[in-house]
Structure formats: structure tokens, C-alpha cells
Amino acid sequence: MDETRQPMQICLGTASLLLIVAFASQRAAAESETRIDFSKQIAPILVAHCLECHNADLAEGGLSLVERSTARAGGDSGQGIKPSDVDSSLVIQRLREGSMPPGTHKPRPTEDEIQLLATWVTQGAEWPQERTLSLYDYTTVHRGGEDWWSLQPVKRPEVIHANPQGWVRNPIDAFVLDQLQAAGLGPSPEADRRTLVRRVYFDLIGLPPSPAEAEEFVADNRDDAYERLVDRLLQSPHYGERWARHWLDVVRFGESNGYETNTLRANAWHYRDYVVRALNDGTPYDRFIIEQLAGDQVGVEVATGFLVGGPHDEVGIKNIEGQRQQRANDLDDMIAVTSTAFLGLSANCARCHDHKFDPIPQREYYAMQAVFAGVQHGERDIKPDDYEERLRRERQLLEQLAEVNRRLVGLEPHASLDSAAEVNRPTVDARGNGDRFEPVKTRLIRFTVLATNAGEPCIDELEIWSVGPDPRNVALASFGSVASASGVYANGTNSIHQLAHINDGKYGNSHSWISNEGGQGWVQIELPEPVVIDRVLWARDRKGVYADRLATSYRIEVAIEPGHWKTVATDQDRLSYESAGSTEVEADAQSEAGTERASLLAEKERIESELPPASMFKAYCGTFTEPPPTPLLYRGDVMQPRDEVAPGGFSAVAGGFQLPANMPESQRRLALAKWIASADNPLTTRVIVNRLWHYHFGQGIVTTPSNFGFQGGKPSHPKLLDWLASELVSCNWSLKEMHRLILCSSTYRQASTPRSEPQHVDAENRLLWHNPVRRLEAEAIRDSILQASGVLDLRIGGQGYDAFVPNNNYVKVYEPKRQWGPTEWRRMIYQTKPRMEQDSTFGAFDCPDASQIAPNRTVSTTALQALNLMNSPFVIQQAGLFAERLEREAPADAAAQVDLGFQLAYGRSPDDAELKESLGFVTQHGLSAFCRALFNTNEFVYVQ
Asked: Residue limits of the DUF1553 domain (predicted)?
């Protein structure tokens, strides 16, 4: 060996070693820097491409990739994931060779994704032990996951402060302008004042401004004139009517059951009135939610009409499967309307299987069903807000009335049993009658009805008065007396007509007995011991509401022992009920105390007029019972129940909520309401502000207002949507504040004139470069016609009018009316809304028929619309009334009549050409034809 080279060899060896160490260190550092993150990089690939076939329920080839242990254990063909050994990991092999995922319809991972998986395996296939995978974890090309945009927390974005030429009035404009500029576009100029006033009136109250109102705004030069206009309209009682109609569409409100009988729900209108009232009162939206889901728990009982506002098959199929199916359908309707209206999710898709598009497992659908499991369709008694005061006043007045009636009976002659005796007592009265006779000792008193004015006889209270210094009604059950009868109509614990009502001391139809025989029947009172009596008081309905079922021929008998009856009074000495000319005055003339009797009758009339309305009223807002267990139904089959599911919400939405299986019924709905109405729920605020936007601009920021899921639209202005959602919470959930914000923006005030350049870039106006022209809805068109003709009845609330001819068929027949009068000249929101039946004239204008949820209305143009607006009896009638108004308010001046017609129809005067043409038309065809022509113009039925 050359000694001279030895040091060099040593030197090189040391250098090599140092290089190797350095390289290894660099490689380790590099690997450390590129360490694969399982949750961020690997889990999304496995969920998107593998988990559909290799999950806990469907582990094809015996391989499940939901957790570390099953993935490493592998399946029938070998180990799925083998840490640090790519060649032995079957998942990597199958992906590389293209056999996974199978089929051509499933998206395959890219080469980069496969390489990322391989690198992850090489690095040891790190998989946190507690981490399990679900098809709902990540959004893929097939479905939305828990990372879907609408399920993420609302984060208030920073407002961009670009403001060219002072166009930005509030943050809405900043967000809109930012996206317009990014697309190379700019906004449109502001609309003129006449256009703005008409637009805002229709948007907020659904009616056009009167000529005076339009002129007042046009002439108002104050800087805040527009804001003042918006504030005034938001305080109008007609605001609630306009926006209630939108909400009733969203929640599928109807006033009939649907299905083949489609019978009307006489008291469903209370929910409609609640919505109008809540919106007018400015009820915060979170409170609005809670009231509709659990109003019985927070003092707003009629609000739960929301739950049962949908169709209900009252006939159904009577076998066990049919009954279960009907119940499942009712519950599915409640789930569907709750999830779409408040959350913008189509949850009922999970009824038979896990949701195909959104992260809602089937089990969570049945958890939601458990929330509603105690809700049943039907009416219930509702206490008005001033119930206790009404009750106190009612008792007071009824005591006074009873005393007056006793005194009246005391003035009447004794009942005569002599068939030849002169008629000297008044005819029977539904509000009260007395039969006085010589004192008699008795233990049994029987009242037998021999004839009525209509139907089965009804008595609201049978009073039997004792003789002595302290007379009392000994018929009362509280005295120990027992009632019996020949029969009872509609007997049952739920019937308001029960035998127990004959002597319970309560008056009125809701506390009455009705016989089960037409025109006849008897009722008997057995006293606990013999008592001397001298009069019997009875009535059909002391509250004066009902006058049918009145006993017109009767007999009163007494006995100490059964079978030994003695007649003490009949109707034979009364004036005949059939004698139409008979009056109380005539009866007075035959009495010995006519003056006193007249005074008592006047007092009786006064008391009856002061009686408050019924202390309680019926409303179709559901009934509640403690729910049975809720099973998960295999494939949605009601005959294949599986294990019980406890009540809860959707875990993908703000974590959901979970309740014990034995939670009381009312607490289930209240928990659901609070979860939905929470500021932490990312869907609730986004969905409602988008609805407001939708109705103000004709389309929402999200174009599918009731579907924020995978198959719904994507937001055109995501930052604006989140800013509005956060702002709603900031302003205490006030919908009126959100209206004010939107309407006062420059975005809303833009003109609707189209421009060619933006039209080529954004034909659908998603970026809001102008305000869209919109056709009025059916209700606004009809209401505007009535307002123009001067006959619109602006009364708010109460039972609606019927658009169909009355009939008493077992199955309701909806035959449209051909004649209309003041009863039907109310706003169309008060038209009784049966399902699957439409207003004969305005139903053609894309009016929902209440058979399904209608979050947005289509806008069609059909020949039937034109024909209805030109030739329907309603429009012809209103055109005639419109013409009469013009003649009345502008007499003998055709030009002034034409001008007024334009003002009432369009909010403006005609130009010279329009005036000339209109005068020629009036001369040739008449003023009524001119008015009908105005109703048929685009300017009348469209708003710019």
C-alpha cells in the first residue's frame, strides 16, 4: 500500500460517511416536511372513491375502510392497507390497476391522488385510532358531506369599502359592486320616483299606491323621503298580509284535507291570521320559529297550525298497514315542511334509506320523526289572551241573565193544560223559556220533546226551581241530581254534546245535550229527595248563537215514583212557533204585567248584547299526546320496524341535538325549536335572509330557497349571504330591519331597463346589474283590480270568504262562483284555500294549490291567463265598477276620467298619444271596455 495515499483514503471515507449522514438527514427532514395529513389529504380520497362499497353496512369483498383496524385487517383477498408496504396493500394495487372503484359511473382517483395514497402508506399509513370515516364526512361529486358550504358556521365577512361615485349606501351594495366590477360590469342608474314608489308598495304591502300617495312621494324633496316611505309601509297592517302569503306558500298551508274527500277545515284560518299578526307585530324570527313548533308551550297556541297545515287522509285504509302508512305520511309531511321551511334541507329523502345527496342518515330521519310522534291532526280548544277576564265577565252576565229570566217566568201566567183554554203565553225562544205551574212535590222531572224546528232536539241546560224563601236550581248535578235520557247524539268523551251538560250549570251550545232522534226525545232529572217545585227553565242556546234544534212542541211531567207521571206543562197554550207574525209584543198584550215584562225583555237584550264571544274557540292547530316508541323502518316499510330511535336532530347541522327516548312530547318539540332557532345553526339564518332576497329580487342569492343541500343552487354572492345572515342575528332577528336594509340599498333602487353589454355577460342577472321586471302574483293582481274599482274591503283577519258555490255533499264539490259581491271583495289572502282547487279567474296565474310546498312560484304566460283577465265574470264586473268610479269622481269629463284611470291603474298620467288613443277608444267602445283594457295591460300586471 502506498503510504502516501493512506491519509487521502481515510479522508475520503470520512467524507463519504459525512455525505451519507447528511443525505439521510436531508431526506428525513424532507419526509418530515411532506408528512401526509390523514384527515386533510387521505380521508377525502377514501370517502370519495372507496367508501361507497367498503363501509360498515356494505363491506364488499369483506373489506371495510371506515376505521384503522378494519382497513389494516383487510378482506377476503388480503390486507387492504399494510403500513410501509405499498406492494402488499391491496387498496393501492386495485387503484393502480383500475379495478377499483368498479364500473364506469363512479369517478376514479387521479394519478396524483393514487400517488398520495402510496406515499401515505410508505410513511406508515398513519391513521388516528379514534378517527372513523363516514360517507357524510366530505363532499364528493355524488353527494354533500358535513363540509358542504351551507353546513359551515356563518362567519361575518369583512365589508369591502370600494365606493365609486357614492353608489354604496350600505354593505349590501359593497358586496354586489365588488362582484360586478370583477366581471367588468357596473350597476344601473337609480329608478325614477314613480317607479320606485310603485315597486316598494307592491313589495311590502302587495297593493299599488293611491294617486295621492304616489304624488306625495314624488313631491317630497327631503333627503330621507325614500327611507321614510319604507318605514311607513313596514308599519302598515297590510305588510303582514303581503308577507304572510309568501310564508303560507312555503309551509303548504291549506284549508281542506286534500285526498279524495277534500273536506274543508272550518277553523284552519286561525293559523293564517297568526302569521299576519306575527309579521305585523315584528315578532323576532327566532321567536317566530319557536311559536310555530311549540306555541302551546310559549303561550301562542294557534301558531302550531304550522305542524298540521298539510294534507291529511281522513278516510285512509282501515287495515293495520293502511293506518300505519297514513300515520307515517302525516309525520313525513311534518318533517318535510320543518326541514325545508327553516333549514332548507330535503330531509324526507332519508325516509327509506340514508340520504343520497345530503349528510342525513336514515336513523336521524326517524329521530326527527320521534320529535313529532305525539302530534295529531285535528282541532283543539284555544284560550284567547284575555280568557280569564272573558270568563269572569261571562259568569257575571249569565248570573244577571238567569235572574232576569226567573223574573220573566214569574210574570207569565201558569201553564194551562186545558186544551180549550185561550193561548196566553209567548212562543218558544231559543235563548230561553220558562214553564210555571202550581207548586208540586216531586222527585222525578221529565222533559219530552215532540217536535223541533229542525233536526234532533237540543237543550243547553234544564233548570228546575224549588219553592220557598230561598229558591234554587235543584236540577244541578252539584245538588246530587242525576240525569238520564232517551239517547245522546254523537256520544263520547270528545263530543261537546253530552248528557252531563244538561245539568252542569253551564250555558251555550258547547255545553248541551242533543237527542239521537230526529225531532223527538226525552231527558229526565232524578232529585236526591222529593222537593216542592213550581217552574222549569230551559233553552236551546242561552248565548243566542244557535236557533236550530229548538223544541217547538213538548211536555213536562213530574213523579214521585217511576211510572206515576203527572203532566204539569205543555206548549199548547203558547203562541204557535210557525206563526210568523207572532211577536213578543203580542204576547205582552195578553199578560197582566206588560210594562214590567217589556222592561225585563229590554234588560235581557242588553245583557245578551254584552256577552263576550265564546270564552274558548276551536282552531285547527293539532292535538298532542304522549308519543309511542318510534322504530326505524327498514326501507321505510311500516310493516318492518327495527330498533327504537330516540328523538333528535341532524348531527351535520350544528351538531344536532339528542334527547332521551322517554322525553315528554312537548319538550321534544321545544328542543327542536330551540336547536333550529339557535344563532349557531348555520342554515336557519342563511335560509330566511335568502327568502327575503328572493321575494324582493325575483330570485334568491341561492336560487333554490328551500334546498341548500347538494342538489340546490350555489350562492351567487356567498359573502353577502353570510353578511346578511350574521346581520339578522345582530339586529335581534328582526325581519323588518332586514327588509329596510335591502330596500334602502342602491342595489334595490336600480332601474330595470336592460343594457346590452351586461346582458351578454350575465343574462340571468345573477350579479344584479339591474332590478328585474317582475309579474305580480295572482293575489296582487286581484287585489289591485278591486282597489282600482274602489270596492276593496281592507278588513284584516277573521274567517275567509268562499270562492265556490255552497253545497252539502258528503264529498265537497268545488263549483266556482259565477257571481261576486261585497263578501268576496276582500284581499285574496282571505279567500278560503282548499287544496287542489283554484280560483276560477286567478288560479291560472301560477297560484299554488296548497297540495305541495311552494318555495317559489313559476311565472308562465298562457292563453288562459289572457282569456280570464279579459272575459271572466269577475273582471267584467270590476271593470263596470271601475267605470262607475271614474264617472262618479270625474263627472262629465272624458279626459279627466281617462287620466284618473291611468292614475289608479299605473300610478301616472297618460302622455299625449295615450290620452288621444284612449279617448277614441272610450268614444267607440265605452268607459267600461276602457277599464277592462287597463286591467289587461302589461303595465298593470308587471312591476318594474
From this structure: 668-919
* Residue count (the chain): 944
| DSSP letter (8 states) at residue 842 | T
What whole-number distance in Å separates Cα of residue 15 and Cα of residue 22? 10
Give the position of cell 311534518: 334
The pLDDT assigned to 79 comes to 86
For residue range 601-638, list pLDDT tens digits in order: 788 878 877 876 667 889 999 999 999 999 999 999 99
The pLDDT assigned to 383 comes to: 86
618 forms bridges with which residues in the sheet?
Answer: 381
Is the separation of the CB atoms in 177 and 168 below 8 Å?
A: yes
HEC profile of 852-888: CCCCCCCCCCCHHHHHHHHHCHHHHHHHHHHHHHHHH
Closest CA to 587 of 396, 413, 828: 413
> How many CB atoms sit inside 10 A of residue 17's CB?
10
Burial 791-824 (b: 16+ CB within 10 A, else e): bbeeebbeebbbbbeeeeeeebebebbeebeeeb
Whole-number Å distance between alpha carbons of 369 and 645: 9
- As given in the structure block, the three cell numbers for residue 721 are 349571504
Retrieve residue 207's grid coordinates: 297593493
Q: How many CB atoms lie within 10 A of CB 117?
A: 26
The contacts of residue 396 (CB under 8 Å, 6+ apart) are none
Q: What is the DSSP letter of 60?
A: G
pLDDT at 495: 67
Average pLDDT, the chain: 90
- According to DSSP, the β-strands at 551-559 and 566-570 are antiparallel
- 25 pLDDT more than 70: no
Amino acid at 385: D
Nearest by Cα to 694 from 678, 710, 711, 716:
716
- Residue 589: the pLDDT is 43
Find out whether 133 and 51 touch, Cβ atoms under 8 Å: yes
Report residue 531 as a C-alpha cell: 222537593
Which residue do the cell numbers 363512479 mark?
106
d(CA 229, CA 222): 11
**Grid cell of 517 as nine digits:** 232522534
- Strand 942-943 with 617-619, pairing: unpaired
The amino acid that residue 595 corresponds to is: T
Q: Which of 76, 80, 82 is nearest to 66 (CA)?
A: 80
The arithmetic mean of pLDDT across residues 853-864, rounded, is: 93
DSSP 443-501: EEEEEEEEEESSSS-EESEEEEEE-SSS--BTTSGGGT-EEEES--TT-STT-SB-GGG
Are 208 and 786 contacting, i.e. CB atoms less than 8 angstroms apart?
A: no
Sequential DSSP letters for 492-524: STT-SB-GGGGGSS--SGGGBEE-SBTTBEEEE
For the chain, the C-alpha Rg in angstroms (whole number) is 38
> Rounded to the nearest 10 degrees, how much is the dihedral formed by the CA atoms of 78, 80, 84, 88?
40
Give exposure, 560-587, as e/b (b: 16+ Cβ within 10 Å): eeeeeeeebbbbbbbbebeeeebeeeeb
pLDDT given at position 71: 86
Alpha carbon separation from 811 to 9, 246, 314, 316, 580 (Å, rounded): 110, 30, 12, 14, 35
Prior bond of 107 cis (ω within 30°): no
DSSP-derived 3-state class of residue 360: coil
Name the most confidently modeled range: 98-112, 516-530, 809-823: 516-530
Which residue shows C-alpha cell 303582514? 240
Identify which of 64, 36, 38, 37 has the alpha carbon closest to the alpha carbon of residue 51: 64
Residue with cell 242556546: 541
Question: For the chain, how long is the longest CA-to-CA vector?
Answer: 164
Question: Which tops the pLDDT comparison, 398 or 853?
Answer: 853
Place of cell 309511542: 628
Q: Is residue 435 pLDDT above 90, yes or no?
A: yes
Query: 203-213 pLDDT, tens per residue?
Result: 999 999 999 99
**Main-chain phi, psi angles of 469, to 5 degrees:** -70, -20
What's the grid cell of residue 487?
239517547
